[in-house]
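Is adenosine monophosphate placement plausible here? Inputs below.
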Amino acid sequence: MKVLVIGSGGREHSLCWAIAKSPKCDELFCAPGNAGIDQVAISVPIPVDDLDGILDFVAANAIDFVVVGPEGPLVAGLVDRLDAVGVKAFGPSARAAEYEGSKGLTKDLCAKYLIPTAEYARFDEPDAAKEYIRVKGAPIVIKADGLAAGKGVILCRNENEAYAAIDHIMTEAAFGDAGAEVVIEEMMVGEEASFFALVDGKTALPLVAAQDHKAVFDSDKGPNTGGMGAYSPAAIITEEMSARIMDEIINPTIRGAAADGRPYKGVLYAGLMFTKKGPQLIEYNVRFGDPECQPMMMRLKSDALEMLLACAEGRLDKIKLEWHENAALTVVMATEGYPGAYGKGSEIKGLEAAGKLKDVVVFHAGTTEKDGSILANGGRVLNVTALGKTVKAAQKRAYQAVDLIDWPQGFCRTDIGWRAV
Ligand code: AMP
Ligand code: GLY
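Reply from A.M.:
I modeled the complex. Tokens:
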């Protein structure tokens, strides 16, 4: 079959890498792809937000199946448009993708269907928001309701920080329309982990769990990023805990979403906090995590294309997934300056040597190729991923590979996986 993956990050490279191994995959395309994706798929220069361009390509090339990586095109309705022309796709409809597109919508779902989460209120008016802060006190969490590239959440230690956060998000419109409404939440305390389930409308199938590292520097210092590394499994999510999460959080969500006219299909990514009261939902994403997807794809033994197709075709009750017992760990290498301003075009060497290490794959994110050289072309650039018997072994192997990469303008955290090691 002919498959098209949408996206250009490390997540999409790992999806392409896994899909390309499937005997069912005859031709694999990726829009827009990157220099690493070129090794396993044909990159086509269509931006992820060019829905017309994607639909034209799908028709012109008789694509059988589209796998959507990032949230943007999902929220914009790519899967609905593919549905309308009879092309199978992996990912939720625009209505279901709104659970990531609006944090308030998800909180309302939690309240209605008794899904454990932090206490909250929604506001579209700054004075009322500040009055609520005055009543509740600090610490408190202020969130832009809409998509803000992972930056729309402000953890406030005192009331003044909270008032400033309201000004920043609502009055100064730091995130544009995404901050026209805010969600104000009680601050939860505990360890975090990401939980993933495939959902086909009827059946929900838990995947392995993962943990990511959001802060840019070692010891979780510095501003938050899209993720500087990740590993799987996450020790806190035992089999027993996974069953509890399915029971208390995922299954009620799927039933509730369907009852509210937003039936869910695709991968549901639950950001969870393990508090004294048990697992609580922080937020939903409607796609795989980046970088969490990279160690997950390394651990997947089953046919990835068959897994994604079974989800899109409503056959999840008929498949059983197999995973490597081994752990996997990803170290993100980013351009100096990220998550702030950074330069583009620096040359990266040593990728071949790193990729030749046993059980190592270097997934690319922001890279491009010019005259045979690989150049950095983004903030997060490489995802050095390794398998190992334990998280510690995978960590050691991944950093051995990092050491072989010669890129003076790049940096990485040196402590990915610390919690598990
Ligand atoms: P989100 O974009 O909603 O995942 O939030 C980003 C990060 O902010 C999360 O990974 C948590 O570390 C933190 N966070 C969000 N909501 C809360 C909350 N209610 N209590 C404590 N931390 C939170
Ligand atoms: N790693 C966090 C995310 O994908 O949202």
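Short version: The first strand starts at residue 2 and ends at 7.
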